[in-house]
Amino acid sequence: MGRGSRRGARAALTAVAGAALLVGCTDEPPEQVMPGPTSTATAAPPEAAAVAERYRAGGGDPDVYGIQVEEGPEGVPRVIIRTRNADPEGAIFRRQNTSVTAHLMAKEGASFKKGYFIDVFGPDGRIIHRMDARP
Known about the structure:
About 40% of the residues lie in helices and about 20% in strands. By secondary structure, the protein is of the alpha+beta class.
C-alpha cells in the first residue's frame, strides 16, 4: 500500500469515526437506553392535572397541563409532562425541564438524588422529548 493510499484510508476512517460520533449527538438518547412509552392518553390523570395547575399558578409554563412522577427503571423517578405545545424546540424543553423539576422539588416534595428520566408528550399524546438525567 502506497503512502497516498494510506493517507486516503486514514482520512476515510477518520470521517467514518467522526460520523459515528455525530450519530449519538442528539437531544434525545436512543430508546434502547431509556425504554418507555412513545405515546400516552391525551387527558392527564386528575392528580397530574392538579400538580400542573399548582405549577402554572406558581408561574410555570401555561402550556403544561399534566405533571406526574412515577417510579422508573432502577427506582429512578420518571417525570411525565403533558403539554399543549407540540413544538419540539430544544430550548422550550430545557425551560420546561428546569421549571417543572424545580417546582416538583420545592413545592411537591420530589427528590431527584438518583437523577430522573423525563418524558414530554404533546397534545396528540405522542412523545416530543425523552431524556435520561441521571448523574
